[in-house]
Every structure is written in C-alpha cells, then in structure tokens.
C-alpha cells in the first residue's frame, strides 16, 4: 500500500494525501458557500480564458488515446494478459459484458440521450439549416461521437493501466501505480501523493457534476409526475436524500443489496428501452439508429480531429471540450471499476470489449431515446424543443409526454424517476469507495469513518455547485478539474509503454523479472515485477 502508518482518524489511510485532499475540497466548499456568485464567475472566467487552448489540447489528447488503445488491442502487445501468463478471466463473458453495461449507462446518458440530440438538432456548425431531417441525422451523429469510441478510449486507457500494474505488476490498485516506471522511488513520496491528490480532485468534481445533472433531471421528473416545483431548494433536498442512502449503503457494505440494486437498474433500463421500441415509432427508430450510426462511422476521423479552428462560435467549447473534460474527470472512478472486473483478460479482449460494447449500448440508447424525440419534432406534435430551451433537464420527460400515452406515460415517467434515483445512488456509492481506495493507498476496504466523511463531502459539493448556477457552473467545474489530471494521463501512457518494453525485453532475453532493473530497483516488494515471463507466442514475429 502507498501509505504511511497513521493512527486515530487517519488510521488505514495515507494521512498526507487525505489531509491535503480535505483541505483542498473544504476550501472549495467554503468559497462556494460564502461566495457563491464569485465561484460561478471565477469558473466562467477560467473556462473562457482556457477554451482556445482546450479546444485543441483535449482533442489531441483524446485522439492519441483512441489510437493508442487500438494499437494495444491489435499490435505487438495484444496477447499480454492482465494477470499471470496463464491466469484465466475472473468473470465469464456474460458477467463481464453485463458489468460493462452497468458502466456504459448511467446518470449522464439518461440526462443527455434526449437533450443533446434536440439541442444539436436546432443548431450546430455542421449543418446549414436547423430543425430539418438532415439536421436530425447530424444531431444523432454528434451525440454518438460524444458518447462513443473517443470517450471510451479515455475510460479504457485508465482502466487498462490500473489493471496491468495491479494484476501483472502486483502494485496497489491506485492511480500512482501507473507512474511507477516514470517516477521510480519518488512514486512513494510527495510526487506520488500529488498524483493521487490530482486524481481525487478530478474524481470528486466529476462525480459531483454528474450527481448535479441527475438531481436536476430527477427534479424535472418529480415535476412531471407529481407536480412538485422545479427549484434549487428541492434539488438540494434530493441531493441530501440520495447521498444519505448512498452513504448508508457504503457503510453497511452489504454486497447483496448493492448487487440487487444494480440488477434492478439493468432490468428497469431494458423495460424502458423496450417500451420506447414497441410503443414508439418503431420503424423510424430502427432506421435512424442504423443510418446515423453509419454516418458516425463514416465521419469519425473528421470529428475526432475537429478543433473549430475556422468557425467563430462556442460550439467546440460548450460540447466537445465539456465532454472530453467530463470523461477525463470521471475516468479514475470508471477506470478503477472496469479494472476490477477485467482481471485475466488479454489486451485484445479488453480493448474489444471495453471500447466496442459500451459504445454499441450508448448508440442504441441514444438512438431510441433521442430518435423518439426527433420523430415527434419532425412528424408529431412537437413541444420538446421548447421544453428543452426552457429547461434542459426536462428533455426526457417532455419526450414521454409527447408520446401521448396518458396514464401509461405517467407510469413510465415515474419509472424513469426511480431509474435516475437508483443510478444516482449506485454512482455515489461506488464513487465514494473509489475516492477512499485512492486515499488509502489502494486498500479495497477503506475505513468506515472516511466513507461517511467523503459521502458527506460529495453531497455538499453537489449542493454548492447547484446553488452556484446550475448546468453552466457544473460544466465549468468539471472542465477545470479534468485539466490537471490530463497531465497524469499522459505520464501514465509513458509509464505503461516503459513497463511493456521492459517486459518484452525480459521475454526475449530470458531475464527473470523477479530481479527488476530501474525504474523498479530498490522499491522492495512493491517493485517486484511480474512472474517469470516465458518466450511464448506473445511476442512471436514482433
């Protein structure tokens, strides 16, 4: 474990990192509580100032990650296993894919599956005329882009690095382990602490942003179903309830309850999807999903490299920069989850599964939800565009209302409110555990007191960001939080390449990996490399 012995409140934790993280987040909370308007203004100014840089920097980083992951899955290292040379996967394909489904859907996709297609349908830089059939196809393509391969390249990269160093190098399952080949012994000191601190910073704001979006949407659902007012006060109350339930779940450690909740999410999601497919415009939904998916594949490279250089508008900053920042900030959380369930997979299996499966799930999800909304705007009674322009969080429920199903539609809206709530609880639950795992130096069972503390912190930060200005503030916060962690991602790429080259050299020369050279020399047990590597088929013809 990457931690120093501590007693009292910080027993079982890396005291130095935990204290720094608490001070940093407490400062942000205090500033947000007492200077709410200044916080919103400061985030907006910082975002405006950095946008010209981020419009190409995030694009370039995500592009490199996408090509890097494809190379890992198809290149010379494709048969490297996340574990011992002959270790079998911990989970069956069905179980693994099911858990990737859980990671591939959630509060974010529920919020944006309708909102993004409708907003892009009205205006985007790639169409001449908004609100047209062609605009609908382009809107779907752009939504697939922001929820497709590029974003999952970020998640899958962080996950494969964590899994490789944890299960093949026997290092703790925490972010700094990916930098062991780069930092060497310094990874056990202040530099390693700084890496974990930046990971916690990005994760906290990433989770708080997603919770904020989900709470806004849940408020819109309660308004649609029960007529409750849409207000910041009610959103803060919802946040308090969600975080209380999530923290109770984290503290109890009742795996059966968490498993049942996850299974309920799965089946409820399938039920809602089937409802849309059966009672919605079925032929149109199938057709628009297939057509726009083909459009997405055909235009993938041009969208991947698009930096808005010749277009004078804010589209790139408001959409691509935000989404790539959100994926980066969320990546330690989702990456650690994916790493935990992927032990025993080869790089090729991992890349094929983690890049393709969630992307396909998101394409289907957006195709059915977004396609239903677009159909009713093009051929039905409409009203969804107006609802979204007034309040983005109402998009999903305005679509159900436009279907004209009466009491059945009300029941579906109620089911969606429940689905949002369960996704919020499971996201907050898992996020709290991930934050504490990082702060405890890789301990998968961190102290209970810190689970409670960080559950409360996430709830308070979400409430502060909601009070500070809603969606715009949430977007600015996650973009700023992701920027420092993006530097860690680059260093993790260097660290993984160095480790793989070191292993390949050992395989070719017959060197025993138990006697590691730099950068693992003098690291004690934490620096012991993988088990002896035989000259097997992994590097044949390379």
From TrEMBL:
UniProt membrane topology term = Multi-pass membrane protein
Membrane-spanning segments? 17-36, 56-73, 93-115, 144-167, 194-214, 234-254, 266-286, 321-339, 351-375, 395-425, 452-471, 477-497
Q: Which residues form the signal peptide?
A: none
Q: Which GO terms describe its molecular function?
A: transmembrane transporter activity
- Comp. bias regions, Basic and acidic residues: 509-520
In this chain, the stretch annotated as Disordered covers 509-542
Decide whether keyword Cytoplasm is in the record.
Answer: no
Q: Which terms in the GO cellular component ontology are assigned?
A: plasma membrane
Q: Where in the cell is it found?
A: Cell membrane
- PANTHER family tied to this protein: HIGH-AFFINITY CHOLINE TRANSPORT PROTEIN (PTHR30047:SF7), HIGH-AFFINITY CHOLINE TRANSPORT PROTEIN-RELATED (PTHR30047)
Provide the protein name: BCCT family transporter
List the source organism: Vreelandella zhuhanensis
């Amino acid at each position: 474990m990457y931690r120093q012995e501590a007693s009292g409140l910080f027993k079982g934790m890396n005291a130095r990192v935990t204290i720094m993280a608490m001070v940093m987040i407490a400062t942000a909370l205090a500033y947000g509580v007492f200077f709410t308007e200044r916080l919103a203004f400061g985030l907006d100014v910082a975002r405006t100032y950095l946008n010209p840089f981020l419009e190409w920097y995030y694009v370039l980083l995500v592009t490199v990650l996408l090509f890097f992951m494809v190379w890992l899955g198809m290149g010379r290292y494709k048969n490297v296993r996340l574990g011992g040379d002959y270790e079998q996967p911990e989970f069956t394909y069905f179980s693994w894919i099911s858990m990737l489904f859980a990671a591939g859907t959630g509060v974010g996709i529920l919020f944006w599956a309708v909102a993004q297609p409708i907003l892009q349908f009205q205006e985007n830089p790639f169409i001449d005329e908004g609100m047209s059939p062609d605009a609908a196809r382009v809107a779907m393509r752009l939504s697939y882009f922001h929820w497709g391969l590029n974003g999952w390249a970020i998640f899958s990269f962080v996950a494969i690095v964590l899994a490789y160093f944890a299960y093949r190098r026997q290092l703790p399952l925490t972010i700094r382990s990916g930098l062991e080949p780069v930092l060497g012994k310094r990874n056990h000191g202040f530099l390693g602490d700084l890496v974990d601190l930046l990971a916690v910073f990005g994760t906290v704001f990433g989770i708080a942003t997603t919770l904020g979006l989900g709470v806004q949407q849940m408020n819109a659902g309660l308004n649609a179903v029960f007529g409750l007012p849409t207000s910041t006060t009610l959103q803060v109350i919802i946040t308090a309830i969600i975080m209380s339930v999530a923290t109770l779940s984290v503290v109890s450690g009742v795996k059966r309850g968490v498993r049942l909740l996850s299974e309920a999410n799965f089946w409820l999601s399938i039920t809602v999807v089937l409802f849309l497919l059966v009672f919605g415009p079925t032929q149109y939904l199938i057709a628009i999903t297939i057509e726009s998916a083909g459009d997405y594949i055909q235009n993938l490279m041009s969208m991947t490299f698009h930096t808005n250089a010749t277009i004078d508008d804010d589209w790139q900053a408001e959409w691509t920069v935000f989404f790539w920042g959100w994926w980066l900030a969320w990546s330690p959380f989702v990456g650690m989850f994916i790493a935990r369930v992927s032990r025993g997979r080869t790089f090729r299996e991992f890349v094929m599964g983690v890049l393709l499966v969630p992307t396909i799930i998101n394409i289907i999800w957006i195709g059915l939800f977004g396609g239903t909304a677009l159909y009713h705007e093009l051929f039905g009674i409409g009203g969804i565009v107006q609802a979204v322009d007034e309040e983005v969080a109402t998009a999903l429920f305005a679509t159900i209302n436009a279907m004209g199903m009466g009491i059945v539609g009300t029941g579906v809206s109620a089911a969606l409110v429940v689905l949002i709530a369960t996704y919020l609880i499971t996201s907050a639950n898992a996020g709290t555990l991930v934050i504490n795992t990082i702060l405890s130096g890789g301990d998968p069972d961190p102290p209970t007191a810190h689970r409670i503390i960080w559950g409360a912190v996430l709830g308070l930060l979400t409430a502060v960001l909601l009070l500070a200005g809603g969606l715009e503030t949430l977007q600015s916060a996650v973009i700023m939080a992701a920027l420092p962690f993006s530097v860690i991602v680059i260093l993790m790429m260097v660290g993984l390449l160095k480790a793989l080259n070191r292993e390949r050299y050992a395989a070719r020369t017959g060197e025993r990996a138990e006697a590691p050279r730099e950068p693992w020399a003098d690291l004690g047990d934490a620096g012991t490399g993988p088990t002896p590597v035989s000259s097997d088929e992994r590097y044949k013809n390379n």
